Amino acid sequence: MKRYIITGAPSTGKTTLINSLQENGHTVFEEVSRRIIISEQQKNSNKTPWEDVSGFTKLVHQQTIKELHTPIHQHAFVDRGLADNIAYLQLKKQPVSDEFLDFDYQKFYHKTVFFCPLWKEIYTQDEQRLQSFEEAKQLQNLLLNTYNDLGFTILEIPKTTVSERLHFINTSLK
């Protein structure tokens, strides 16, 4: 079994959707990035996407690889895929390491990626989401390019209620 990626810029409803999928009996993996940001903030470390994005993505890579080796026996969903790091590095004009470029994404992830588009009406910032709406737009474009370049099929999740978004995902599963 492979994991379905749910991705998009910050504050597009990914985590709400992941939580709802879990409540509906699906296997989910919470966002590694947010957990690492919180941990690094608690340690007063600069390994965050807005300070040391290279150090941050190394931590995300290590933790994600561990989680990808967790066996799954049914459809599973991840809040962001490993390839999101490529877009974050590009956003900050940092080199993308071979560990991201040479990774066998198709081995672990389903070919279909669910993409939550920017939605100004629900966009908020918090202590782990410091990006402006404009920066989120740039990241959204980089995410789309990254997943297209890696050969994924992108399905855009409609801007609608959580239950309708769930229905969209459930009817799209292969």
From TrEMBL:
InterPro entries: NadR/Ttd14_AAA_dom, P-loop_NTPase. Residues 3-165 form the NadR/Ttd14 AAA domain. Gene3D superfamilies: P-loop containing nucleotide triphosphate hydrolases. This is NadR/Ttd14 AAA domain-containing protein. It comes from Tenacibaculum jejuense.
